[in-house]
Structure formats: structure tokens, C-alpha cells
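name: query_chain
kind: protein
chains: 1
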Amino acid sequence: MRHNGKILIVEDEKSMREVLKILLEEEGYETTSAVDGMAATEKIQQEIYDIVITDLKMPRADGFEVLKRVKEASPSTVVIMITAFGTTESNIEAMKLGAYDFIHKPFKIDEIRLVVNKACERKRQSDELSLLREKVRTSYQLENIIGKSPKMQELFRLIPKVAQSNSSVLITGESGSGKELVAAALHSLSPRKNKNFVTINCATFPEGLLESELFGHVKGAFTGAVSNKQGLFEIADEGTIFLDEIAEMPVSLQAKLLRVLENGTFRRVGGLGDIKVDVRVISATNRDLSDAMAAAGFREDLFYRLNVVPVHLPPLRERPEDIPLFLDHFLGRFSPDKKEFSPESLRLLMKYPWKGNVRELENMVERIVLLTDRKVILPEDLPEEVFTAVRPAAALPDMNDGSVDLEKIVEEIEKNYLCTALAKANGSKTDAAKLLNLSFRSFRHRLQKYGIK
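structure:
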């Protein structure tokens, strides 16, 4: 017969033991009894219980001793203390030792039933969380990347295979989705793992300085070049270089990068001799390079050299089942007092669109933990933008209420569809136009009309 859980009743009064036993078995629990703390200690060493209900004052070993022994043997077991002689000090001491609740005699039947049922639910949630953390460690995590969604599991299968080759990899995905973590995983799982992993964001340097950073310069090459300097490609020799925001690299510099990819050689700024290196190149972008190529902002031949192995990182809104994993992960980092999200808070966060992806989620959890005093984070503790984003859209105005601005309403609907299509297409105007059954020219015209970038 299936039961709700296994409970050990520790009580030296026979009548009280029997009352608790009858009550709890009627609720569907499997019960075992112990006449005092010493007998309970022996049972605890032989069996793991979901819940232990123990009297405080008992011969041989009191309830505090039972509580300590339970937490040593099975930290996840929930302990409920019962006494007729409780004080505020004993309550505090019990809670410090890990007691779930403290009930005073005489108690009402409904009271004990409610507390035990809540304790059982707490144990079930604790077990589920432990199982989830174990799955994250064994199945839902690769290096520092987390995910149990089908798209992420497919990525976990792809990364170890790709890591073994020297082929160039182009990682695409929205800002904040974790592209650098994928690049780091590709390096750490590769034969180059003991060599340098060098990263650079191409968007943070002006053209002249970016060239010097990548390829180095010789003394006197330009004002301020007072000595020879190694570039990142030299530093990454026999290792890996990660070029983030590759779409922002100036066209004039793209030709020099292409040369490195084709024959492994380059020249320092102002230098005369070629330098040969063996570097694996991993690049990333949150832009659609096909749009950049169409606008002559990115070389097509370089694209094909970089995109030997394409890896796409899906945005967080397309894998909401991963959100609880991230919440638990970031709570573990930012909440030493082990805060947790209520079910309603979790539901709201899973509906939130997360335009900033994992980076936005991480920042929000840190802010919530900092500003929330309670242990269970309720919806009222969430930022206002969560409620604004998940609130249902307002209904269309009723003409019975008076005249309406039809042109404005149509414009708002059109803008919403344009933005939604762009989001679903990961910023690709070409793909977004197809989603709306528009030509590329017509789609681009509408974006310009409403000033959508």
C-alpha cells in the first residue's frame, strides 16, 4: 500500500504515542514508534525517515539529542518538536539545530495534521531540489553551462564532438545568452586545454587599437609605440582565441584575419616579417551576419572561414524549463541564508521574456536577494518590470466608448508583430520577413518607418 511518508514518533507517554499513530496512519503515513530518545537513536541508525516527531522532555535522551542524531544521520529528514514545557529559548535552540516546527501540548488534532502535512510537502520539495541539483551536476551541466531543455541537451552533445577538432566555430545567440561560456567549454574540452585561452571583444576597441591588440606592433609603428608588443594571436599560439562581437570588426581588418585563418600568418603593425602561429579561432556574434554581408559590412569569404562549425545558443525565453535551474544556481551563489522562490514567483519568472537572457536573470536574482529579508521570495518581492511584462495585453478599445484612432491602433499592432518576428528570428531581418510573409525590402521599409533597430 502506498503511503505519504515514513514517520518516527518519539514519545514516552503511551497514550500520546497511540493517538499520534492512529491520527497519522489515517492520513496515509507509515509510522514507527520509540518510547524514548535512546530507542529513537537506535531506530534512526537503522532506518531513514521522512519525518520525526519527538517529545522534548524524555528519559535517557531528550528531544534535542534526538534532533541532533537525526540531522547527523539524515539531514533532509524533517523534525517536529512537541512539548508541554516549551520556552522561547528552547524554541530558538530547536530551530538553530534544524527543527522544522515546535508544537505545544495540548494541541488540536487539526493543528498536528496541518503541521505534519506541510512538513511532508517540505520534505518532498527538498528531495526534488536535491534530485534536481544532482541532475544539474551529472546531466544538466557541461562545464559552466546549465540546461535541461532539448535544445541545450543537444548543445551538450555537440560541444564535446566539436571540441576535438581544430575547425573554426561561429557561435550565434542573443546578448547575455552565454556565448563566451560555450567558447570556454570548447577550449577546456579540446586537446589545446593546457594552452592559452585568449578572449577579446571586437566592439570595445577602435580600429587601429584593435589591430594592435590582435597582431601586436613594432617599436615606432605609431605615436606611443615605444616598444615591441605581442598581439593576442601570438599569446594564443597553440591555444584558442575567442573573438566576441566579430560583426563589429572593421572591414579593413577582416582581410588580415582572413589571412591568419587561411595560412596561419600575420604581420605586426609596422612590421616587415611574417609571424606564423597555430591558433584555433572561435568567434561569436549577436547579429545576423547575412544582413551585414548584404550591406557590405562583413566579408563573405571571412564568414565561410569562421562558420565552419555553426553553434547556436537559444535565448532563455525559448527554454523556460531551464529557468528553475538558473534560479537555484544563482540563489546558491548570492543567498547564504538559502532563500527560495515561492511557486507563484517561479511561475511569473518563467513567463518573463528575459530580453537580457541569463545575464539579466543573474542580475535580477542578485538584486532580489539583496533587497528581500524573508526566506521565501514572494511575488511582491519581484521587480515591477516582471509584472509589466507578463501582464496580459489590454483589450482593443470598444467603439461604444466613443471614437477610436484606427490608424494608431493598426500601427501599434504592426510594430508589435515586427518586433516579435525579429525576436523569434534572433535578429535576422531575412528570417523575420519570411515569418510575416513579407519581402525583405518591404520588411526593411516598415522597420525604417517605425524607427525599429
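note: Residues 142 and 157 are 9 Å apart (CA to CA).
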